[in-house]
Amino acid sequence: MAAITAGMVKELREMTGAGMMDCKKALAATDGDMEKAVEFLREKGLAAASKKAGRIAAEGLVKTLVSEDGKSAAIVEVNSETDFVAKNAQFQGYVADVAAQVLASSAQDMDAFMAEAWAKDASLTVAQVLSSQIAVIGENMNIRRFEKITTDGVVIDYIHGGGRIGVLLEASAEVVNDDVKEALKNVAMQIAALTPKYVKRDEIPQEFVEHETEILKVQAKNENPDKPDAIIEKMIVGRLNKELKEFCLLDQAYVKDGDLTVAKYLEQVSKEVGGKIELKKFVRFETGEGLEKKEEDFAAEVAKQMQ
Question: How many other CB atoms sit within 10 Å of the CB of residue 3?
Answer without folding.
Answer: 7
